[in-house]
Design goal:
- Strands 3-2-1-4-5 form a five-stranded mixed sheet, with helices on both faces.
- Helices cover 48% and strands 22% of the residues.
- The mean pLDDT is 89.
- It is α/β, with parallel strands linked by helices and 140 residues long.
- The chain has four helices and five strands, in the order βββαβαβαα.
- The protein has one domain: YqgF/RNase H-like domain (Nucleotidyltransferase, domain 5), CATH 3.30.420.
- Helix 1 crosses helix 2 and helix 3 packs across helix 4.
Length: 140
């Protein structure tokens, strides 16, 4: 199996994670920092090439009631820009509800605070999104 790269798109920082080649474990690989969506797409496309990702999973922030709000539309816009940059690499959107909340809970448990927390939460959110994606496809 080939690697999957996950994206937790954000306005200032976009968290990234990549799977192992067996498709079992998600590993956070950091974040890219940009507040300009086309530049963020360029930076993420570089990471896709660097890690040799065969698929991209973008977290889709669905509201708790299942509806799609402005943040979901923003993620889809980002996905369209990224698709232009990565050619035929497939992009999937995956429900990211509660991933950031789970990341904050983990950081509370590990007593991660301040600047360290701010820099790590986006990466951890991407890792959670990817692990949930991998787990949901394990038995298929």
């Amino acid at each position: 199996m080939e690697r999957i790269l996950a994206v937790d798109f954000g306005d200032a920082r976009t968290g990234l994670a990549v799977s192992d080649t067996l498709g079992m474990l998600a590993n956070g690989i950091g974040y890219v920092k940009s507040d300009y969506m086309p530049k963020t797409a360029d930076l993420v496309a570089e990471k896709v090439r660097e890690y040799g990702a065969a698929k991209i999973v973008i977290g889709l922030p669905i509201n708790m009631n299942g509806s799609f709000g402005p943040r979901a539309e923003h993620a889809r816009e980002f996905g369209a820009l990224l698709a232009e940059r990565v050619g035929d690499i497939p992009i999937e959107f995956f429900d990211e509800r509660c991933s950031t909340m789970a990341a904050h809970q983990i950081m509370n448990f590990t007593d991660t605070r301040g600047k360290k927390r701010k820099e790590a939460v986006d990466t951890l959110s991407a890792q959670i999104i990817l692990q949930n994606y991998l787990d949901s496809h394990k038995n298929r």
